[in-house]
TrEMBL record, chain A:
Record has Thylakoid as a keyword: no
Compartments reported by the entry: Cell membrane
Protein name: Anti-sigma-E factor RseA
Organism (species): Pseudoalteromonas holothuriae
Region (Disordered): 1-31
Family designation: Belongs to the RseA family.
Domain (Anti sigma-E protein RseA C-terminal): residue spans on this chain: 132-185
Biased composition (Polar residues): 1-12
Domain of life: Bacteria
GO cellular component: plasma membrane
PANTHER family: ANTI-SIGMA-E FACTOR RSEA (PTHR38104:SF1), PTHR38104
GO molecular function: sigma factor antagonist activity
Recorded topology in the membrane: Single-pass membrane protein
Listed InterPro entries: Anti-sigma-E_RseA-like, Anti-sigma_E_RseA_C, Anti-sigma_E_RseA_N, Anti-sigma_E_RseA_N_sf
TrEMBL record, chain B:
Similarity comment: Belongs to the RseB family.
Chain ranges of the MucB/RseB N-terminal domain: 23-194
CDD domains from the UniProt entry: RseB (cd16327)
Keywords: Periplasm, Signal
Name of the gene: rseB
One annotated Gene Ontology cellular component of this protein: outer membrane-bounded periplasmic space
Record's keyword annotation contains Signal: yes
GO biological process: regulation of polysaccharide biosynthetic process
Signal peptide: 1-18
Organism: Pseudoalteromonas holothuriae
Limits of the MucB/RseB C-terminal domain: 218-313
Location(s), subcellular: Periplasm
Secreted found in the keyword field: no
Protein name: Sigma-E factor regulatory protein RseB
Length: 204, 316
């Protein structure tokens, strides 16, 4: 039996050990490749979900040896390209550094533009843009408010709204005309005021 | 050596700048003189946004009298006649009336034909480039506002005759908002036959002498908290508007170049948003403040009009 045991391959021994067929003792220990045994045990643990805290496989040794075996690449070239890449890198950083505020300004400007457009166009939807005086004067001014229809509520509301809009339009027309009329005397008034100021100064 | 050059450069720069101001001012003065002394017959158009207004402008000096005619050629029309210092307005809807003043209040600010020095407190005169306008060599003179609450006014002046060839309201971004462009001008040694008829025409008696009408009660009705630099109150009263018979507390302000009207009125029914309307350089801002409506009209940026309208409060 023991003889048989001795002749069996290390894999078989390990397998039997894990299955509990073989007692762990000095004799069996000698037959087993300890590294392989450890790995098998770990695999088993993982499959039974007994392992907690992650798998720990020690690969530092193999990595170190692999690195040692790695042939040395031409260092000079590499250093140059590295430098270049570094340079490019700084350029990109610089560009974006001054681009960023610029783009922010552009965004701010476009927002402001939208806001201004908003202010300008919003009321224009309510009433068509007033043209200057001649158009206002030629517009029929009597009967601005349309009669409210009794037939149903909807047209009545619409008419009322239309009436309001007309009222506002009419008012704006009146304001612009009044401004133009008044500014005709503005210059004369200004001259008068200046003269009056001069007189009062002379009196003093 | 370098210091010397620096000082010399600085000195030269300042003298050049001073010359610049003087010559820009001188050009404006020459223009004012030319407009008042030459016999000319001109046509110009005013471009306001999408609208356009064609005018004819005739001026003559005849037997010691100054005759000037400005007429709007489209639509119902408008005719303004000036004989020396009597200006008569003929409008389609109202009876003609006369005002005792020495310049026509047309599309060009009157101050530019008179004392431009008055503007120097709030505007800079800057020489611009040369160009060709209406077939004649022209020099640009920019009247630039000292702060950005106002528009700038640019004038292109004929380098030979000193007459105005083009003018524009320009915003702070350099966009031409409202342009006045001569399409034709003929300067003649003798006045045109057509305008001599004006010398014989009968005019309505001028309006009763303009009072510096500043109604104290109206002034105390409202507080106008903010105005752009340089604007002074010329007039305040309460009157009914011609077109819709609405009552309004009215204030007229001017900085010499542009006029601003402020109206405080009873609010219209319904919820209406405050907002601006503009046509060319003219802005109308209607501010709905609940108990009353404030409207501001004038050749000013919308933001300025908004700030004025929102600053109007009841006195505490």
């Amino acid at each position: 039996m023991t003889k048989e045991n001795l002749t069996t391959s290390p894999q078989e021994a390990a397998s039997r050990l894990l299955d509990g067929d073989l007692q762990l003792e000095h004799s069996s220990e000698g037959q087993v490749d300890t590294e392989k045994f450890a790995r098998y045990a770990q695999i088993g643990d993982v499959m039974r979900e007994a392992q907690s805290g992650g798998i720990s496989i020690d690969i530092t040794a193999s990595v170190a040896s692999a690195l040692e075996n790695e042939p040395c690449h031409s260092m000079a070239n590499e250093a140059a390209t590295l430098d270049e890449q570094h340079d490019n890198g700084t350029k990109v950083v610089k560009l974006s550094a001054w681009r960023k505020p610029l783009s922010q300004v552009a965004i701010a400007a476009s927002v402001a533009l939208v806001a201004v457009l908003g202010v300008n166009t919003m009321p224009q939807q309510n009433g068509p843009a007033i043209d200057e005086m001649p158009v206002l004067q030629s517009r029929p001014l009597a009967g601005g408010v349309a009669p409210v229809s009794f037939s149903s509520e909807q047209p009545a509301l619409q008419n009322a709204e239309q009436g309001l809009r007309d009222l506002q339009q009419q008012r704006i027309g009146a304001l612009v005309l009044e401004h133009q009329r008044q500014s005709r005397v503005a210059y004369a008034l200004q001259q008068k005021q200046k003269a009056a100021n001069q007189q009062s100064e002379e009196k003093k | 050596m370098r210091l010397l050059a620096c000082i010399l450069g600085l000195f030269l720069a300042t003298t050049v700048h001073a010359n610049d101001v003087v010559s820009a001012k001188q050009l404006l003065k020459n223009m004012a003189t030319a407009v008042h002394t030459r016999n000319f017959d001109a046509s110009f158009v005013v471009l306001k946004g999408k609208g356009m207004e064609p005018y004819r402008w005739v001026h003559a000096k005849y037997q010691g009298k100054e005759l000037e005619l400005l007429s709007l050629l489209n639509g119902a029309g408008l005719e303004i006649v000036r004989v020396d210092d009597l200006v008569t307005y003929y409008e389609p809807q109202s009876a003609p009336y006369s005002v005792k003043t020495d310049s026509i209040a047309g599309p060009i600010p009157e101050v530019l034909f008179k004392g431009v020095e008055a503007l120097l407190d709030h505007y800079d005169f800057v020489l611009g480039g040369k160009g060709r306008i209406a077939g004649r060599p022209a020099q640009l003179v920019r009247v630039e506002a000292k702060d950005d609450t106002k528009y700038n006014y640019w004038l292109w002046i004929d380098t030979q005759s000193s007459l105005l060839l083009k003018a524009a309201y320009v915003n702070q971004q350099g966009e031409l908002l409202e342009q006045l462009q001569l399409t034709h001008i003929s300067v003649t040694p003798e006045p045109a036959e057509q305008i001599l008829e004006l010398a014989q025409r009968e005019f309505p008696a001028p309006l009763p002498a303009l009072k510096l009408n500043k109604d104290e009660t109206v002034q105390s009705n409202w507080q106008i908290g903010w105005l752009p630099e340089g604007f002074k109150l010329l007039k305040s009263d309460r009157h009914k508007l011609d077109l819709n018979n609405e009552l309004a507390d009215y204030y007229l302000f001017s900085d010499g170049l542009v006029d601003i009207s402020v109206f405080v009125q009873r609010p219209l029914p319904g919820q209406r948003p405050s907002g601006a309307l503009s046509s060319g350089a003219t802005t109308v801002y209607v501010h709905n403040s609940g108990a009353y409506d404030v409207s501001v009209v004038g050749n000013i940026p919308a933001v300025t009009a908004k700030n004025i309208a929102e600053s109007v409060k009841r006195p505490l």
